[in-house]
Ribokinase (Paenibacillus urinalis), 295 residues
Amino acid sequence: MSKKAKVTVIGSSSMDLVVTSNKRPGAGETVLGESFKTVPGGKGANQAVAAARLGAEVTMIGRVGDDHYGEIILNNFKQNGVNVDYVEPVTEMESGTAHIILAEGDNSIVVVKAANDEVTPAYVDQIVEVIKNSDIVLIQQEIPEETVEHVAALCSELGVPLMLNPAPARSVSDEVIEKAAYITPNEHEAKIIFDGASVENSLRKYPNKLFITEGKNGVRYYDGTEEILVPSYAVEAVDTTGAGDTFNAAFAVALAEGKSLQDSIKFANRAASLSVMKFGAQGGMPTRKEVEANL
Ligand code: RIB
């Protein structure tokens, strides 16, 4: 294996409260569910755990509440080998939660950020040294917008590549787009960020920087000459929650190890496809060995 990638993830850590049901309730409707489970999640935490399972040296920058969920989240990081020196519990605050309905082959999610809102620019300023020593920084949008802006400026100043996974969707400033090295929206997020522009036009504007994930189809980008679709792998999906997080983590790890763009996307597509074969955002996240055995 090539050198061990140093990955820093700045983002959310939550508990996922997951209900499975045969039917998704409509507005004003009550349906009976099949099961209820609580599992660690949050886009930031998922990406940190996925990167660690793939063999990277991972530091998580985040916040949890001073509650029972916070303890579970911290233990889960430790069990997965993620450095939690900078995941500080916030006093008298609840941990973030994601309320997930798994029904009809897909998920619907309501996120309550809670302690994740305390991942502020000032909090990040305490760990500039960690950012400086990273091969790559990964960030998402379940933390305040000004933190994303601050980290983009910091990374660009320090010359550390930043991967922005703009999920969940919200508008992203031109400065952030300019300063990020890689941006990885899905089609829906891309429409919001680029004011409804077509996939083709958005990709052409940001060669080798913008990677639009299209679920089962694969990942599309423009290499400066032509548009390239790197197809995903067909699998029997049990739970697609966290597939995007696995993709982002694996893409970041592979790039940080010096793999080519195409090889990094292939590796990430494989990791993401394996991740959907088990229940829970982190349940199916593969180890390095599992990805390599299936490439
Ligand atoms: O990307 C999947 C994650 O989104 C879930 O784990 C949930 O926490 C939501 O934030």
In short: Residues 14, 16, 41-43, 46, 98, 109, 111, 142, 241-242, 244-245, 281 surround alpha-D-ribofuranose (CB under 6 Å). The mean pLDDT is 97.
